[in-house]
Design brief:
233 residues, 2 domains, single chain, three-stranded antiparallel sheet
């Protein structure tokens, strides 16, 4: 839960592995250039590299399932914009075109190079608005750089900044998410305290000086759904 940027990178052309590795390397160098707190070395991908699996949805006997498909090969680079923000993995990989589930189905990965991932920027806001917006924009700037290199880039930005370039809309979305997280965290804490079973509920949101305001805002916006959640605890 939290404001997140989802992205998909793909190259339909039959690029050589050497060219693909160079693209990933350039993305890592660009991340350093624009001020990422950390940008790692280019890493080769094998069939058990974390966060590089392709997820295939399929149905069997009326039920929906998801199978995770490891990459055949590829390269990735890990970048970290700054405190509170998740690190983000960027790269390009090749995946099998089909898989058995047990019937043979298409993976939807095609025959080119492709990569799916996301970065939650939400908790960078624990260090202030300016820090958050900087981290959020860094991730989007790296995605624009991929596009400039000729890679097809698809983005779903829950803050709306990718689509609109509006800091006002981004800030409104962030406030809404902060309110939701404060209200949910408060509800879980209240339920834990009421149960008398001990234990504690921890979240960075509790340390905020405006926690009570955010909690009230969250209940005002999401109260109906949160009441249903509270009932089920």
């Amino acid at each position: 839960m939290g404001l997140t940027i989802y992205y998909k990178l793909s190259v339909a052309e039959n690029l050589s592995p050497a060219v693909v590795r160079e693209l990933v390397s350039r993305a890592g160098l660009y991340a350093k250039k624009i001020g990422c707190a950390e940008a790692g070395a280019v890493m080769p991908v094998d069939n058990d590299t974390p966060e590089t699996f392709w997820h295939v949805q399929y149905e069997r006997q009326g039920e929906r399932f998801v199978r995770s498909i490891p990459a055949k090969h590829g390269w990735v680079v890990n970048v970290w914009p700054g405190e509170g923000c998740e690190s983000a993995l960027f790269g390009l990989c090749r995946y099998p075109r089909t898989t058995r589930v047990p019937a043979l189905v298409s993976t939807g990965a095609g025959s080119g190079w492709i990569f799916n991932n996301y970065c939650k920027t939400q908790y960078a806001s624990e260090h202030g608005w300016e820090h958050f917006v900087r981290c959020h924009k860094i991730i989007l700037s790296i995605l624009k750089f991929w596009r400039q290199m000729g890679v097809t880039v698809e983005v779903s930005d829950e803050g709306g900044y990718w689509e609109t370039g509006s800091e006002e809309k981004l800030r409104a979305a962030l406030e809404s998410y902060n309110g939701l997280i404060a209200a949910v965290a408060g509800a879980f804490k209240d339920a834990s305290d009421a149960s008398g079973k001990g234990g504690s509920v921890e979240s960075p949101i509790f340390a905020r000086g405006d926690f009570e305001r955010l909690e009230a805002q969250g209940w005002q916006e999401f109260g109906k759904r949160l009441s249903q959640l509270s009932t089920s605890m």
